[in-house]
Design brief:
single chain, alpha+beta, five-stranded parallel sheet, five-stranded antiparallel sheet, 25 strands, 37% helix
C-alpha cells in the first residue's frame, strides 16, 4: 500500500469524547488515516451508505445494537471489509462471538495513549491485507478476461515457481508445449537464451520477494528460432501481507525491426529528437532522428559520426554532471528516466530540454544501450516562470482576483477573498458569482458581463455590492477582462477592489452636497455629470436623470469654441480655479454664475467638483453702481 494512499476509518462508539480523542491520536500516528465517527450502530450503517470506509473500528457495549450485532449487519453488506472490535468490555465469550461473526481484529481498550499506536498498526495491517485480497481477486478476473482476447502469454505461479496456477498463450509466444510447462512449471527457463538466464532468474527471485519486475530478454523457441520477449510481473499477497503467488505476462517483441520502422515514421513528425546511444561518457549516438538540427544546430549525421561530442559540445557544462548521475541512477534501478536540462546550440544559444529514456535490450552488443526522446521546453519554462511570478503576485495582491467561465461560474479565487470577504480558500469554486451580488446590482452586473463575454479581449468596470461570508455586504470595483480565448486561462478575469470605505465617504459627501444651497456638479474630464445636488435640479429646471447626460458645455452660454474644454483642462492641471461665466436654464433664462472648481476622486475617477453660485443680484448691484449719477 502506497504511503500516500488514504486510509478511511469509520469509528463507531457511543462516547463522542473517546472517538474524538482516538481520531486525533490515530491521525497523528499515521498521516494517511482519516477518521469518520458515528455514535451508534444505526448511525454507523447510515454513514457507510455514503462513506467508502477501508476499515471499521467499533465498540461492543452500545445502546441499541451492540458491536457484534453491528458487525453482523456490516458483514451482510461488506463481507470482506476489515472490522476491529475495540472494546472496554472484554471477555472470552465476547471474543469468541466476535470471531464467529467474522471480526478481523479484537482489541481491548486500555489506559494511556500507547494503545493508539497498537490500534493504528492493526488498522493499517488489516487494510493492507484487505486491499491485497481485492487486488489479487481483480488480477484473477483480469487474467481470465484478458486470456480470451490477448496474444500475450498470461501466467500465475506460486511464490516458489513450483506450482502453475494459470497459463494462457504459452505455445503462441514460446513455441513450447503447454503440457510441458504444466508438468514442469519451470519449463520456460529452458527456452531462455543461456546468456540471459541469470537475468531472468534474478527477476523471478525479486518478484517472489515482493518487487514488481519489468524485463526484456532473449529466448530460443521450441525450434531454436531466436526471439525476444518482454516480461512484466507483480506479486500477489495473502491476508498477512506475505507473497503467495506471482502473476504477469510475457509478450513477444521479436518484431521490433518492423516496429522501429514505424517508429521512425512517427519520429519524423514529432517535435523533438529520438535517439539511441551507448551508455558511456560522451553518450556516443548510434541513431538520431527528428528535429536535431533545428534544436541543436548540429546535423544528425555529424552527431552519429562522432564529430560532435554530446556531453562536451551540446550539454550545458553546469548540467552535464547532474545529467550523468541521474541517468545512471535510473539505469542501476532498471527504470526509465526523465530529466530536464540545458543545452548550448551550435550558435551559442542556451535552450531547455526535457528527455525521457531507458536502457534497452542490446542483443549482440557489449555495452549498455539507451533509447529515448528529447524535446525543446524553452518556451514552457519561460511560461512556468511567468506563472510562478503571477502566482506570487496573486498570493500578495490586496485585491481579489477571480477567473470565471462564460456563464459566470468561479474557476479560480485568489487568497484575498478570505481576508476581504471571509470565505474559505476554494469555497466559491464551482459556484455562480452572480448568486453573491446584491439583488439591486445583479442586473447591471449581468448586463456588463454579457457585453464583456461577447467582446474578445474587451474590458469593463462596474461597481456592485458583494455578499460576505457572514451575510454582510462589501462594495467592490470590478475590472473585468475577456480572456476566454487565451490559453491556459480560458475565462473572464476580474480584479475586484474593496471600495466600501470609499463608497461610504462618497455617500457622506453626497449627503452634505445635497444639503447645500448652491448648485453642485461633479464630472470627470470630458465626461457627463456623475453627481448633481437638489439645488442644481431646482435652479436649472432639468431632472436629475437629464443632468446626468449633460456636460458643462451644455449649460454654458455659447462662447468661443473650445473655451469650456480649455477651462476644464486648466482645472485638472492646477487642481483648483475660481471664475465667472454665464449658464442657461432649461427655460432659456441666462444667469451669471461664479464657479469654485476643485479636483476630487469620485466613484474611482479623478473628477471636478464645481460649486456654482448664482450672482445675478451681485451683478445687478454692480451694474447700478456703474450707472452715471443723474443728479
Amino acid at each position: 500500500m502506497s504511503r500516500s494512499e488514504t486510509i478511511r476509518i469509520l469509528h463507531v462508539d457511543d462516547e463522542p469524547d473517546l472517538t474524538e480523542l482516538a481520531a486525533t491520536f490515530l491521525e497523528r500516528e499515521d498521516d494517511r488515516i482519516v477518521v469518520e465517527t458515528a455514535s451508534s450502530a444505526a448511525d454507523g450503517l447510515d454513514v457507510l451508505d455514503d462513506f467508502a470506509a477501508d476499515c471499521i473500528v467499533s465498540d461492543y457495549d452500545m445502546p441499541g445494537r451492540n458491536g457484534i450485532e453491528f458487525l453482523k449487519a456490516v458483514r451482510e453488506r461488506h463481507p470482506e471489509l476489515p472490522v476491529i472490535l475495540y472494546t472496554g468490555k472484554g471477555s472470552e465469550e465476547v471474543a469468541s462471538e466476535a470471531i464467529s461473526a467474522g471480526v478481523t481484529e479484537y482489541m481491548q481498550k486500555e489506559a494511556g495513549t500507547d494503545q493508539y499506536t497498537v490500534l493504528a498498526n492493526r488498522i493499517t495491517n488489516s487494510v493492507e491485507q484487505y486491499r491485497a485480497r481485492q487486488a489479487a481477486e481483480r488480477t484473477r478476473e483480469r487474467l481470465t478476461e484478458l486470456s480470451e482476447s490477448t496474444t500475450d502469454c498470461l501466467w500465475m505461479f506460486d511464490r516458489e515457481w513450483e506450482e502453475l496456477v494459470f497459463i494462457s498463450g504459452y505455445e503462441d509466444v514460446w513455441n513450447r508445449s503447454e503440457s510441458a510447462i504444466r508438468d514442469d512449471p519451470r519449463d520456460f527457463l529452458y527456452g531462455v537464451h543461456p546468456d540471459d538466464r541469470a537475468l531472468v532468474e534474478d527477476a523471478m527471485a525479486r518478484l517472489s520477494n515482493g518487487e514488481t519486475i519489468d524485463v526484456e530478454f532473449r529466448i530460443l523457441r521450441g525450434d531454436d528460432d531466436p526471439g525476444a520477449v518482454w516480461m512484466k510481473g507483480e506479486p500477489v499477497r495473502d491476508d498477512e501481507g506475505a507473497v503467495v503467488r506471482v502473476v504477469g505476462f510475457t509478450r513477444d517483441i521479436t518484431e521490433r525491426r518492423e516496429q522501429r520502422r514505424r517508429l521512425e515514421t512517427l519520429i519524423s513528425n514529432l517535435p523533438g529528437i529520438a535517439y539511441r546511444c551507448r551508455n558511456e561518457p560522451g553518450w556516443p549516438m548510434e541513431f538520431v532522428r527528428g528535429e536535431c538540427e533545428t534544436l541543436t544546430g548540429y546535423t544528425a549525421d555529424a552527431i552519429e559520426r562522432g564529430d560532435v561530442d554530446w556531453s562536451e559540445d551540446v550539454l550545458h557544462p553546469e548540467d552535464s554532471e547532474d545529467m550523468w548521475n541521474r541517468v545512471q541512477d535510473a539505469v542501476d534501478a532498471d527504470r526509465p528516466f526523465e530529466v530536464t536540462y540545458r543545452i548550448r546550440t551550435k550558435d551559442g544559444d542556451t535552450r531547455w530540454m526535457w528527455e525521457r529514456g531507458q536502457m534497452v535490450d542490446a542483443t549482440g552488443q557489449d555495452t549498455e544501450i539507451l533509447e529515448g526522446f528529447i524535446t525543446d521546453i524553452t518556451e514552457r519554462r519561460r511560461r512556468e516562470r511567468e506563472l510562478e511570478r503571477y502566482e506570487a503576485y496573486l498570493q500578495e495582491s490586496t485585491d481579489i482576483i477571480t477567473v470565471l467561465d462564460a456563464d459566470g461560474t468561479v474557476k479560480y479565487q485568489s487568497p484575498a477573498v478570505t481576508r476581504i470577504l471571509g470565505y474559505e480558500p476554494g469555497e466559491l469554486l464551482g459556484k455562480s458569482g452572480f448568486d453573491y451580488v446584491h439583488p439591486e446590482d445583479v442586473d447591471t452586473v449581468r448586463a456588463a458581463f454579457a457585453e464583456l463575454a461577447g467582446e474578445p479581449e474587451g474590458t469593463i468596470t462596474v461597481e456592485c455590492r458583494f455578499r460576505t461570508a457572514d451575510g454582510g455586504w462589501r462594495w467592490l470595483e470590478v475590472n473585468g477582462s475577456n480572456q476566454l480565448d487565451t490559453e491556459p486561462i480560458n475565462g473572464i478575469v476580474t480584479n475586484n477592489r474593496d471600495i466600501t470605505d470609499r463608497k461610504k465617504r462618497e455617500q457622506e459627501l453626497e449627503s452634505i452636497l445635497h444639503e447645500m444651497d448652491d448648485a453642485i456638479f461633479v464630472h470627470p474630464d470630458g465626461g457627463p455629470f456623475t453627481f448633481v445636488n437638489q439645488a442644481a435640479v431646482e435652479r436649472y429646471g432639468y431632472t436629475e436623470a437629464e443632468l446626468h447626460t449633460m456636460t458643462p458645455a451644455d449649460l454654458n452660454v455659447p462662447s468661443e469654441p473650445g473655451e469650456v474644454a480649455e477651462r476644464v483642462q486648466a482645472v485638472m492641471a492646477s487642481g483648483q480655479a475660481v471664475f465667472e461665466t454665464e449658464h442657461r436654464t432649461r427655460s432659456g433664462e441666462t444667469i451669471p454664475v461664479e464657479i469654485n472648481a476643485t479636483t476630487v476622486t469620485f466613484h474611482g475617477d479623478r473628477s471636478i467638483l464645481s460649486i456654482v453660485r448664482d450672482i445675478s443680484e451681485r451683478k445687478s448691484t454692480e451694474h447700478e453702481s456703474q450707472r452715471p449719477n443723474r443728479d
